[in-house]
Structures are given as structure tokens and as C-alpha cells.
Amino acid sequence: MTTRWTVVVDRDDLTKTEVLHDELPELPELSDCEVLLRTSRVGLTANNVTYGVIGDLIGYWNFFPAGGPGQGVIPLWGFADVVESTVDALPAGTRVYGYLPMASHLVVRAKLTSAGFVDASDHRVELPAVYNSYLVTTQDPAYDERLEDLQVLYRPLFLTSFLLADQLVDNDFHGAKTVVISSASSKTAFGTAQRLRGQGVRVVGLTSPRNVEFTQSLGLYDAVLPYDASVDVEPSVYLDFSGSADVRSALHSRLGAELKKDISIGLTHQAASQDSRSEFFFAPDQLRKRTADWGADGLAQRFGEAWRGFTAQAGDWVGVVQHSGPDELIDVWQAVLAGKANPASADVITF
Ligand SMILES: NC(=O)c1ccc[n+]([C@@H]2O[C@H](COP(=O)([O-])OP(=O)(O)OC[C@H]3O[C@@H](n4cnc5c(N)ncnc54)[C@H](OP(=O)(O)O)[C@@H]3O)[C@@H](O)[C@H]2O)c1
Question: Which domain of life, per UniProt (predicted)?
């Protein structure tokens, strides 16, 4: 027998956690096409908190159903190893990267693709395809064993940074000279700032007073201001990673018609507020457009180049702190959820 664990949270109160334990046979019976994965290494950032905050809206609770009524499992990005398989192409020992539960194990129904497989389990069929794909590391040209920590932390975020910056360039910055970015200390925000450097716009970061120094130290923003400071009045685009209604209102009041575009990407402040003045950034639209413009290979080549440039620097910006097991996973979850995590360090958990 082997013990498996799953961390569940209360959907209405994300601070309430519980570890569920199961005693299961070492190698359980799998149906045709099923593969048993053992979770190995994951990252945890504010992005995972957002999955919980808008879990009902987007269907994030439906990926990994577990627990009782009102409970759910938070999805994480990371690596897992095949421990048992009914699929010849995915033998035990195969290492994969993708969307994983806060749990020691996961059974998927693998439908093979050129890069790995898709989980075709019934409960995932209706969910956004990007979250159902798993990459086999030996088939992934971007995989580098030495960069696993950076991959679990940044890869899901940096694709958004890459596409968001590209969409602004593609639209000539909507006539703006400045890009104002909130939650500037967050990884997705500073990844965007990195992509905007040298593109002919001023990049201004807004952040909490306690994170000003860290955000300045990145050297990616032309100016870093605390949330209550006033930005210069000039043609600007706002990229909102915070979701703060107060910051949005203050910017609209100050910039008026000079605010050429207001784009929502995240909600680190954990309030899902909708405002008709802001457009939601939908990464798959830009992904589709650039696949048509550049072809899938052209896009992969450009993203690969950008990713290599980013990872060459990212290790100097943010240190990695290692944790292990369900109890430390919960400690990290509570710290990130409470906004207590230090942006100068990022958390990787091995299971
Ligand atoms: N739409 C998309 O496709 C997409 C893709 C990726 C990420 N995102 C979103 O982008 C946002 C950033 O994600 P990330 O993983 O890059 O974040 P991260 O690196 O973990 O960001 C941490 C920062 O977020 C702010 N923050 C975190 N918790 C907070 C709290 N409880 N209260 C107030 N502020 C808090 C703080 O920044 P400040 O002090 O600077 O505010 C903190 O330094 C998330 O909302 C995520 O969902 C969206």
C-alpha cells in the first residue's frame, strides 16, 4: 500500500486547508489509456491564488475534483513522473510538465500529441485546452534540466508577458508614450516590462510601498512609484495586474483622455471587480493571431528566444526557496495568499 495526499481548500475561504490521505495499492488498476503521475516539483505564486479567487467563474475547480462539498483543489504548474502506464509511448519514468493538483498523485487519460499528451478525462473535456496539455520533457526543445525551478515558476507567466507586450507593439501602443503597470513587483508584470524595454516607450511600475525598493532593483522599469503617487500626465496605456478598483479610478481621474487603453490581466489584490473602462487581456487571441502571422514554428522560435533571454537573467532577480511535502506546501500557500511572500524570493515545492 502507498499513502497519497491531497490538499483541499474551502472555496469560500481560501485560508481554510485540509490534507486528505488515501491508502491505495502501490500500483492501482488503470483503465485503457490511463497513466498514473507522481507529482514532483511545482511553483506557487499569486497566479495560483487567482485560480482560487475566480475558480467558479472560469471553472478552475473542475480540473482536479476532490474533497467534500464546498472544497476544491488549487491547480499548480510543474513536473510529474509517470509511475504506472497503460500507454506504450509513456512508460514509467517519463517526466512531464503541465497543470497539476496540490496532490501527490494524478491519474490522466492520455491522448498522445506531437509534444506529449492531452488529458482527455471526461471532466476536463470542456475546460480550456491550454491547461489540458502535458509536455514530455524529452520532446520539449525548451526543456533544460538545470532550469526546472525557473520553468515551474515562470513559464506559465512569461508566455502571458510575451504575448501581452507583443500585442502592444502590434497595436503601436494605441498611440501611447508610456506604459503604466500595477503590481509591478509580480513576475508576470516584470516579465512584461522586460519585453517592453527598448521598444520606444517609458515603462512605469506601480507597487506597494514595501515593494518599491525590490521593484527598482530589477532595473526593468524607467520609474517605480508607490500606489498613492501621481503618474505624469501623458498618453499612456495601463496594464493592470492588481485588479484594484482604487488604483484604476485614480489613474482615470488623473489621466483622463490621455489614458489611451486600460487592460486587465490579473487581480493580485484578490477582488474580482469588473469595470467597463477596462478590456480583459485574452492571451489565446494573440496566440492565434501570431500563429497565423508567423506560423507555429515561427512563434515557437520567437518565444524560445525570448524565454532563453529571460531565464538567463531571472535567476539574478529573484532567489528560489525550496520546500517539501504537504505541510510546507500549505505554509507557502498561506504566505502567498496573505500577500506576505517577499517578491525577492520565489517558492518551489517538491512533493
Ligand atoms: N490573464 C492571464 O493570462 C494571466 C497569466 C499569468 C498571470 N496572470 C495574473 O497576474 C497576476 C500576477 O501573478 P504572478 O504569479 O506573476 O504574481 P507574483 O509574482 O506572485 O506577485 C506577487 C505580487 O503580487 C502582489 N500581491 C500578492 N498578494 C497580494 C495580496 N494578498 N494583497 C495585495 N497584493 C498582493 C504584490 O505586488 P505589489 O505590491 O506590486 O502590488 C506581490 O509582490 C495574478 O493575478 C495572475 O493571475 C494573468
Answer: Bacteria
What the block records as the C-alpha cell of 255 is 489621466
Residue with the nearest Cα to atom 37 of ligand 1?
183
Structure confidence at residue 58 (pLDDT):
83
Ligand 1 within 6 A of CB of 270: yes
**pLDDT tens digit string along 131-153?**
999 999 999 888 999 999 999 99
184 lines ligand 1 (CB under 6 A): yes
If you take atom 33 of ligand 1, which residue's CA is the nearest one?
Answer: 269
Which atom of ligand 1 is found nearest the CA of 211? 39
290, part of any domain: no
Q: Please state the length of the chain.
A: 351
**Ligand 1 geometric centre to CA of 270 (Å):** 9
Q: Do the domain assignments include residue 296?
A: no
Q: Please check whether residues 14 and 76 belong to one and the same domain.
A: yes
The per-residue pLDDT for range 49-64, each reduced to its tens digit, is 999 999 888 889 999 9
* 242 alpha carbon – ligand 1 mean position (Å): 7
**Using an 8 Å Cβ cutoff, are 332 and 347 in contact?**
yes
Do 86 and 192 have their domain in common? no
Assign residue 214 the CATH number of its domain: 3.40.50.720
